[in-house]
């Protein structure tokens, strides 16, 4: 068989495979796009594990480890020194993709931030902090000059009043509970446990949706988050899930 014939046969095989994939029952166009984003859905970054069926609970110190993480949005910043409150607020409240503050994403779902197709990944951190830098690096995505969006669900067995959301992040970040801004961390900072506490807020009985956005220029990116009760004790009697 000549080289041109081999190339022709190889091309025909690729076309056939593509046709089978497009026609396969149960594979949506969105799923196909997710699979096309660097084949990243099969990768488990260092410091993470796959999400298992059923809800989990916070760790013994109350930290939420199960998250939906969006692949990073490009936002070039040569330094973290300019992360003033006004800059961070403007950068993290700019609409980048549909349903940014309203929709509940799904594992493998692809959204478009400008020209960037970005996939959501359901992952569980093996440590109290969620290492966004390692997440991006493992997927071959930009690690500097980026914005990470994250979402999780907390299911509370009862209404809990006067609790505080306790957050640490590297670098700046903003956080929302059930669509309402709860806490912001501004300026260049390293991730410190309970670095900033929200005002006293209420976890409603049942489903509560937490969203966060972390912005960073050079350096590592990570965060940690938990809820503290009115006496400042970690809240562990809640469920944590991403669906």
Summarize the structure.
The protein is of the alpha+beta class and 243 residues long.
Question: What percent strand?
Answer: 35-45%
CATH topology of the largest domain: Jelly Rolls
What is the count of distinct domains? 2
**Mean pLDDT, rounded to whole units?**
87
Number of helices: 4
Counting copies of identical and different chains, the oligomeric state is single chain
Helix content: 10-25%
CATH architectural grouping of the largest domain = Sandwich
Low-confidence regions = 1-38
Shape: globular
**Total beta strands:** 15
- Supply the CATH class of the largest domain: Mainly Beta
What is the succession of H and E elements? Answer: HHEEEHEEEHEEEEEEEEE
Report, as a whole number of angstroms, the end-to-end distance.
53 Å
C-alpha-based Rg, rounded: 20 Å
Main β-sheet: number of strands, strand sense, barrel status?
10 strands, antiparallel
User: What structural class should be given to the helix and strand makeup?
Assistant: alpha+beta
